[in-house]
Amino acid sequence: MKKLFVLLFLMLGGLWAQPTGQALLQKMEDLQKFDTDMHSMVTLTQQKPEQGNKTMRMSFYRRDSDNSFLIHIQSPESDRGNGYLRVDNHMWMYRRNTRAFQHINRDESIGGTNARAHDFETRNLVDTYQVQKNTDGSEKISEEVLGKIPVYKVHIQAIVRDVDYPIKIWWIEKSSNLLLKEEAYSANKTLMHSVFFTQYTQVGKHFMPVKQLFIDEFEKGNKTLMEVKEISTKKIPNHIFTKAHLESLSK
Amino acid sequence: MTLLRMAFRNLFRQKRRNIFLGAAIALGTAFLIIANSFAHGISHTLVNRIISSVSGHVIVNFAHLGKPMSQMLRGGKHWQDSIAQIPGVIKVEENIGILGRLVGNGKSDNAALMGLNLQGPLSPADSAHLNDDFHFVAGHWSDLRDSTVENPFIMSAARAKYINAQVGDILRVRAQDVHGTFVAARLTLVGIFEPSNLFMESVTLLNIKDIVQLINLDPEDSPSLNIVLENPQKEARLVADRIWDMLQSPWVFIEGAWQHQGQSLGTAFYSGYLSDSSSQELLQKRLVGDFDWSRNQVLISAPWAQEHKLAPGDTLFLEYALRFPQADSTEKLRLVVGGLFKPDSSLPPNLILARDDYFYPQLYGALPQIHPLNSVEISPDFAQILSPEWQITPRVSTTEDMTKVQKDISQGKYQGTAVSVNTMYEGASAIMQLESALQLITFQAVILIFFIILIGVINTLRMTIRERTREIGTMRAIGMQSNQVRKIFLLESALLSFLAAIAGVILAMISMFALSQLTIQAAGNPLGMLLINNHLVFVPTLLSITLFVILIVFITVLTSWFPARKAAQLTPATALRHYD
Fold this sequence. Notes:
The complex is a heterodimer. By secondary structure, chain A is α+β, with helices and mostly antiparallel strands. Chain A has helices at 2-16, 21-32, 125-128, 243-249; strands at residues 37-48, 52-63, 68-75, 83-87, 90-95, 100-104, 129-131, 141-146, 149-158, 167-173, 179-185, 191-203, 206-216, 223-232.
């Protein structure tokens, strides 16, 4: 009987134990990685103290299987018709006024906002980051309450050098494994930005953040709200991810 | 000699007429010299003062992973010593410049952060150059050496005013390091200057040792290099060619211990293949079975796969020794087999290949030890396919070609570190062309002026001959030969034009001195880039002045030839019969 209690205690203990960092990252990645094509309308509202508000609305086509995406800007009028296209490892910016494509790198800003071209790429999370370790060798994962939501607070660090931020802290909802808040730090541990993932939507087996608030912690007062609407997972024809299509959209 | 004396004396016989004519020639000469010196001054300012002081006479540029803003060659520090040994090279300077966002007091601004090399004592010439370039309103460039303040920096008065910063203020900067990662730092403003030219206005300068730390440059890595030469005009292209030859890259093979499912597979070599379509076509012919080119998976040699019973889908682990060991002495990589290929006899049978955009980040993430296989001779087929450690771009001779290479880099043609070697003349060939165009326009305008002046010369000589026809008759009657008559008129013209041209040179010198003393306020005006310390720059050269004087004398003598010949052809009787 005593042995049975011990066994039961161990089993329950196993159930309530914290997940390992690697498993947590893998779960998060699996939840957010799409195995279907996706189309949505994205609205970026940027607030800068010196420049006021700027709202940008764009149509976004994404196919994770071959890392392709196409962005077509619909407003404001000054940027309408401009766009971005990624095929294989190449990324182009299209300008309606000049009707010209310019090859760009992943660091290019989208329409002059804080969003950058590589924010729209998918990247293998477990190959890029790992959970930091405490001095005793245990993983830096703790349990907290964010607002009223029980979360894991996870300290992660980059395992490759070409990432925007080498250190991040994530608040991950315990019940769903969804990321609710992120703080990104520079190598010398200066807080650079915070992101609040305030709303998700379920698409098939996967989850997609549909409302994200980016707060620039370095240049105080700069904020960007990203809202995703009209999500469709219908298969996108190949011709969408072509220069000709992006050009035709602006006519 | 007698003829020369006579010609000289004749010039003073019609003083007023010759003074007017001489003044016209002198003015034309002065205009020609001033315009030429100004055009030369523009290129001198842009090329020798700005381009050479910003980028040296020869520039070795690195674009890490093909990214133009990541200017670094991994493990390339030792090249600095090798380049410094080349005859004619005075110094090799590290060129570090990054873009960042500077947050001031209630205002922020984009900033071009550049490193100023203040390691060791500066030569008097370098100090003088810095004093010339920056006129400090507060602080001094030497304050950048102050190790008691955090990251000291200097900036122009206009920029400091924009972000409401004063000397002593601590500002924050956000930038990206050489790997593309965001970095943040606190900078202390130690100096505010009035720039000597427009280009310096936007520059924010830090001590190079501080900026090296800010951009996380490892000690064994090299940023782009500026090379200063003893005699740039003569040696720049030769030295650039020599550096280009020196920087031809070896192949890169990572030798390490491989494992599959916990079983050792012994040692094997890992390298990259170029991802362009022609390389893929060549490699396609050697494939055994199918391979998905778009996935981040590796190709393994078929004999090695057969030996160890490996197949597509298998996961391999590679462990290899590092070239620059720090905390770890080895690096571990995880690779997934995507397909098999047949290597030829010039390659090791145990070879694993990955697409270059997948291979290079792994290679530069942890450089392997240099292996003797890196320098073996490889069959032409595979020599076209395999990745070198870095990729050197072709040498170019014009700015246009250089822009084309830069465009190739920004369009992702190079997945490894693209290495370019250029001289400032290639980089500034457009400026040289601008100088030539300016000189051509000036020359045409001056030729037009001279055409008008020469009509005056012809007219004056015709009048002179007409007035002195009886005198010519007398001289011919007492024994002077016709060619002596011709010579005397030609000598008169030559003397007049020579003296007038010399007067023109003196006038040009005085005018240029006076113009260069004028202070022109050109803040925010593109004209400002042609000024140094708000003054116009004229660079007269002895060679061009000498050539102009010879040209003017030659044209005048040539024009005088026909009236002089007419005078010489007069017979004594005809000349003596002449009455006005």
